[in-house]
Design goal:
By secondary structure, this protein is an alpha+beta fold. The chain has ten helices and 13 strands.
């Protein structure tokens, strides 16, 4: 399991989260990690820099309490642990009932050899082309018995300075799973080997493994847990821009469900139920030092979160936010209930763009 998921805890299906306080308690360490990572990503000269700033300044930063509910903004980006957890919960809600009806579940990993930074975009495109051909063959051979869910992932090896783009799949049927691996190897004789592929019966953790983060944000370092080097993460996010993380084969979802899952926009129209001062209108602002959302009128904390030793260790290892000393604090403004990204934020004169009136595309420039 991904190191970050070990630290932050399991993601539960959204339909199983009953207590809103537990939901926000789980969000606290994710907000801490996302804010720290976005701060370091903001120091890079990247085409995604303004999107990183949105995560840093706006995503789940303020919680507006009104009409007995909490509402906030979400950035929807792949590097955000808050949004990744929400998206993962929605995917589990959707796919778990579907695959329980499949005739035998198998978990397959398809890989090719690692590549350099310069080779990564070509490798991603080449693997997509090969799998497209593989899918056509599987459709001809198995017809309606070919069903699969595929997730793409890219990891970074800091020792060799290489990138590893690979696929995880849950497939219906052992015969189909073995056929996928055999076809992949036949198409990749010069850059793949049997040892690099994996095929095994799926278990209760396979769906979580499939739907986890698209890249490992946290790895084991010399002094404990630390971020994957941010230049490598930034390059992965650039290369994966506008490429779907999850692809379905052999079955369709209802259009309204597919539109929600395939969109990189996450909206908070409903929010969660308030449990403190439910009749009042309050803006709770995230405070890094308090590790909680704080009512700055009264000083009261919202969730009363107590950090785990792992979170304290990670906070110490990654150091202070480098962006704070460079970019001014945002001006106070009300938090709208919905953020609907649709186009990339172009650079502005201000060091900190005004996101309250800006439409954002979660995956960057066209």
């Amino acid at each position: 399991m991904d190191n970050l998921q070990n630290i932050l805890g399991d993601v539960q299906p959204i339909t199983k989260i009953i207590d809103p306080q537990i939901s926000l308690l789980k969000r606290v360490p994710r907000r801490l990690i996302s804010r720290k990572l976005a701060a370091q990503l903001c120091t890079l000269d990247s085409p995604l820099k303004h999107a990183y700033r949105l995560t840093y300044y706006e995503c789940s930063e303020n919680i507006l309490q009104s009409d007995g509910r909490h509402r906030t903004k979400f950035c929807g980006y792949a590097w955000c642990s808050v949004c990744s957890a929400i998206r993962m919960g929605r995917n589990i809600d959707t796919y778990a009932p579907i695959i329980t009806d499949w005739n035998g579940l198998w978990f397959v990993t398809l890989t090719l050899r690692t590549v350099t930074r310069e080779q990564l975009p070509m490798r991603i495109a080449e693997m997509s082309r090969r799998f497209g051909n593989l899918n056509q063959t599987m459709v001809r051979r198995f017809g309606p018995d070919w069903k699969a869910i595929r997730k793409r992932e890219t990891s970074y090896n800091r020792v060799h300075d290489t990138y590893h783009h690979h696929y995880h799949l849950i497939i219906q049927g052992e015969e189909q799973a073995r056929a996928v691996v055999a076809l992949w190897l036949s198409m990749s004789q010069h850059d793949a080997g049997h040892l690099g592929q994996d095929i095994r019966p799926a278990d209760k953790g396979s769906l979580t493994e499939l739907l986890k983060y698209t890249s490992k944000l946290v790895v084991d370092g010399k002094n404990g847990k630390e971020f994957t080097p941010v230049p490598a993460l930034d390059w992965i996010f650039q290369c994966m821009r506008r490429k779907p993380a999850i692809t379905r084969y052999g079955f369709k979802l209802p259009k309204d469900v597919a539109d929600v899952l395939d969109s990189e926009t996450i909206t908070d129209t409903v929010g969660t139920m308030a449990w403190k001062h439910v009749e009042e209108t309050i803006t709770w602002k995230f405070d890094v030092d308090m590790m909680d959302w704080v009512n700055h009128v009264t000083g009261e904390c919202l969730t009363e979160y107590e950090p785990s030793p792992e979170i304290i260790e990670l906070q110490k290892n990654v150091g202070p936010d480098p962006i704070v000393s460079v970019v001014p604090e945002p001006s106070n403004h009300a938090v709208p209930s919905v953020l609907v990204p649709s186009m990339y934020l172009q650079p502005t004169v201000s060091l900190r763009p005004n996101f309250s009136q800006t439409i954002i595309d979660p995956m960057g420039v066209p």
